[in-house]
Each structure stands twice: as C-alpha cells, then as structure tokens.
C-alpha cells in the first residue's frame, strides 16, 4: 500500500511517499481502508521532533475516515461499515489499524470528507466546553486561536449552547469575519486581548478561557480571568510553556484545568464514545460544520504541511487517500 513515512525529523521534505506493507490486525482491532485523513498542528510538532523521539520509520496522522476492510469475529463492525477512527501508528496511509474502542460508525447521511474534518477537533472541543470548562449560558468565554480547527469547533458549540458572550482571539485580523461567522461576538488579536476582555466585561474578566497557545498567552489570560474563573489549558502551539503563580489562583478562587485527547485515547478511551455519538449527530444534522480549507492527495502531503505551517487557511486541511 501507499503511505507517507519519515525516517528523520525536520521540515516537510522529510515526508516520503512510499510503498509499505499493509498492517495486520490484532485482538480487538479492525483494518480500515482510509478515504480521508486530516492534518493537525500536532502532526507538525511530531514531524519536527517536538513531541518525543522516534521510533523510526514514523507515520503521522491522528484520525481517519473510511470503511472497515477487516474485522475480527464477533466484532460490532463489519466489512464496508463507514467509520471515523483514531488509528494506532498514524493515518497517512491507504490502510490503518485501530482499536475497536477508538472506532465510531458514522451516519449514512454524512459524507466521508465532512466526517474526516471532525474526529480530533470536534470530540476534543465538546469535552473541553462541556466537561472540563463546564460552560454555562451566562458565561463570558475566551477562545484562543479561534480560527483554527479546535477554535472553529468551540465557537460553534458555544453558540449552539447559547453562551452569553463569546470572545475569539486571532493572530491575524484578516480572520475576523470568519471567526464572527462561526459565532464569536467579539474578535481580538493576541496583542490586545487581555485589555479588550476587561473592557468587554466591565473589568470583571472572562469566566472561562480556552488556551491552546501557552507561552505568554497563558500569563496574560490569567490577567483577564474573572474571580472563580477557569483557565482550560490543552496545548502549546507557541512551543513555549505557560506560567502562572500559585498566588494567581488561590486568593481569587480561580482554577486551571488541563486536558489532553491523546492521553485520554491511551488511558480512558471509553470516555470518548458517548461524545463521538453526540458530535456525529450534530454534524449529520448540519447543526455544526467545519469548512474544508483544502484537500490534498496523499502524494502531495508536503504541500499540506506547508499550508498548515503558513497558518493562511480557515477550517480543516484534509488528505485524500
């Protein structure tokens, strides 16, 4: 089968389109014929070596949409079932293997390309909003990197939940209209967001802030977080650690919560299935959607990575297998 692998860390040129063996399924695993996979910023970090070392050869990719090719006896899946999944060992390939607990059937009315936009960002976003942030309608929330995949989902889910005020931050003001179309009431740049949030809330601050950037954005988020507010930290796209002092939280009754979809896939996969059912229904009923910025062939994966790194896109970047 065709796949994209790398044998060293580096720029997009390390990604090689090659022939490899079709993987074999083990106990409680299925083989999936991939139709589409998405490109996530985590792929970029892993490609350049920011998410651990090897082992090589290494295949990138967090999620996939396709059809079941092979399933074990007594499986809930059958050949031909349309699914989304979190494969093991990457998803930039014609065939992938996934644990049955991380595979979810998709409604017949949901096209595979639309389904491919959602596994990582929509399941993560739903958990962040409803389980970790426990957002209420009366809240004022801040969504950092609002034009990105998770940001785009958080905006729509917050709007659907009737959240009172939604503030999105962007690195480029050219993305303001896009972010507002998805549900933001106010759009700020990273340079001024802390002051803008305080201005929008009569100096009370935001009740929940979603931070996937870290670095100095974390400390500046604390500066505009309300009493009893929650900072939800789920990434560090800046490549830098965020810092805060214990005195920033105890006397103000504020709290910081962390969440990782990768950790949950590994240690508590059963937690994801009920959420997958919810977001799949929301996508199938068109209550939420994620624009497709571009679709690249698997052989053109280098171009897909360059687009992600440019940050000059809105929505999800997909790879067609």
TrEMBL record:
Domain of life: Bacteria
Span of domain Enoyl reductase (ER): 10-319
RNA-binding listed as a keyword: no
Gene Ontology CC terms, in alphabetical order: cytosol
Pfam families: ADH_N, ADH_zinc_N
Keyword Oxidoreductase: yes
Molecular function terms from GO: mRNA 3'-UTR AU-rich region binding; NADPH binding; quinone reductase (NADPH) activity
Keywords: NADP, Oxidoreductase
Cited PANTHER family: QUINONE OXIDOREDUCTASE PIG3-RELATED, QUINONE OXIDOREDUCTASE-RELATED
UniProt-recorded name of the protein: Quinone oxidoreductase
């Amino acid at each position: 089968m065709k796949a994209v692998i790398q044998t060293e860390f580096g720029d997009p040129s390390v990604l090689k389109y090659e022939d490899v063996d079709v993987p074999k399924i083990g106990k409680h695993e299925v083989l999936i014929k991939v139709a589409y996979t998405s490109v996530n910023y985590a792929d970029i970090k892993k490609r350049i070596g920011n998410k651990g070392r090897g082992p090589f050869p290494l295949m990138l990719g967090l999620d996939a949409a396709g059809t079941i090719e092979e399933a074990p006896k007594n499986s809930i899946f059958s050949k031909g079932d349309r699914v989304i999944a979190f494969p093991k060992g990457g998803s930039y390939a014609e065939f992938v293997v996934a644990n049955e607990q991380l595979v979810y059937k998709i409604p017949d009315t949901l096209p595979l390309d639309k389904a491919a936009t959602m596994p990582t960002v929509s399941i993560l976003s739903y958990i962040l909003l409803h389980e970790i942030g426990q957002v209420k309608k009366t809240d004022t929330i801040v969504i950092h990197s609002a034009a990105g995949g998770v940001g785009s989902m958080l905006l729509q889910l917050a709007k659907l939940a009737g959240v009172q005020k939604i503030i999105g931050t962007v690195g480029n003001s050219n993305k303001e209209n896009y972010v507002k179309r998805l549900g933001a009431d106010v759009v700020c740049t990273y340079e001024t967001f802390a002051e803008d949030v305080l201005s929008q809330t009569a100096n009370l601050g935001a009740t929940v802030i979603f931070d996937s950037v870290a670095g100095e954005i974390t400390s500046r988020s604390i500066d505009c977080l309300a009493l009893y507010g929650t900072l939800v930290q789920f990434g560090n796209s800046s490549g830098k650690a965020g810092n805060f002092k214990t005195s920033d939280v105890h006397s103000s009754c504020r709290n910081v919560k962390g969440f990782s979809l990768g950790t949950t896939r590994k240690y508590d996969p059963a937690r994801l299935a009920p959420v997958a059912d919810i977001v799949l229904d929301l996508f199938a009923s068109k209550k939420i959607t994620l624009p497709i910025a571009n679709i690249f062939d698997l052989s053109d994966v280098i171009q897909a990575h360059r687009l992600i790194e440019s940050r000059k896109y809105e929505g999800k970047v997909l790879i067609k297998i």
